[in-house]
Specification:
Layout (H helix, E strand, L loop, with lengths): L2 E6 L15 E4 L6 E6 L19 E3 L9 E6 L2 E6 L6 E3 L2 E2 L10 E3 L4 E4 L14 E7 L2 H4 L3 H21 L23 E3 L5 E3 H8 L6 E3 L6 E3 L5
Parallel strand pairs: 3-4
Antiparallel strand pairs: 1-2, 1-11, 3-5, 5-6, 6-9, 7-8, 7-10, 10-11, 12-13, 14-15
The structure holds zinc ion (2 copies).
């Protein structure tokens, strides 16, 4: 089934940051489903289903420059489309406004990586609720989030990497190479990982405090005590 992910986008050229929000994923329950996008309402609440759970729940943004009914996404013949449904402050696809105020636009095809903007910053206030929404659209990338040939092969290579290390060094910390030595949870495909030059592997989120600690760019491996220069030329 077609899937869509809306990721917050910060334009480096714009003077003020756009609305911050958590990435939103939708996998359509049926080919004819429509994802409605508008201002957040307490009545509808916000639903953030797991990326692989089919849902066409409406998407709500907590911004006053987003209209109650702003735009819609749907998929036809494998291609995602967007239209403005009569918003007052406009829907922009790669900086081009789709329709005049309060008028519905024609459908426009959306490609993976396109930037969609909802509304324009309200100049009267600095608060987040007056910011426009800018988002990068990811189309049909669900295959990357589940097991596939590429990420399974990469994961196996990583495990083999640390297996070789165990034989050579016989160090006990790396005998459980399928686990992160920091959180003790398993290391699996589709996770963000960090691999040190000594071939020890952790979840990026777990090792980050050590990476960016006071010793930066020197990194002391918590498993084998090897020191690496993270800024060394490759
Ligand atoms: Zn971990
Ligand atoms: Zn190490």
């Amino acid at each position: 089934m077609p899937s869509l992910r809306l990721v917050p986008h910060q334009d480096p050229r714009s003077a003020r940051p756009s609305l911050t929000f958590t990435s939103i994923s939708r996998t359509l329950p049926s080919a004819s489903s429509v994802i409605r996008v508008g201002r957040y309402s307490d009545r509808e609440g916000s639903v953030n289903p797991a990326p692989n759970v089919p849902s066409d729940a409406p998407v709500g943004f907590k911004s006053k420059v987003v209209s109650r009914k702003h735009c819609e996404f749907w998929c036809a013949n494998g291609r995602w489309h967007i239209k403005d449904v009569g918003s007052s402050s406009g829907t922009f696809l790669n900086h081009i406004r789709l329709s005049q105020p309060n008028l519905e636009s024609r459908p426009f095809p959306v490609n993976d990586g396109d930037i969609v903007q909802l509304g324009i910053d309200f100049r009267g206030g600095e608060e987040m609720i007056f910011r426009c929404v800018k988002m990068r659209v990811e189309c049909n990338r669900g295959w990357q989030k589940s097991l596939n040939n590429f990420n399974v092969t990469t994961h196996k290579r990583l495990r083999n990497l640390s297996k070789g290390l165990t034989k050579k060094d016989g160090d006990t910390a790396s005998t459980h190479s399928s686990e992160c030595a920091i959180c003790l949870m398993s290391i699996a495909p589709c996770q963000s990982l960090f691999v040190a030059p000594c071939s020890h592997v952790w979840h990026y989120k777990c090792i980050r405090p050590i990476l960016s600690g006071s010793n930066w760019p020197q990194f002391l491996c918590p498993n084998c005590r090897a020191v690496a220069d993270l800024e060394a030329d490759v």
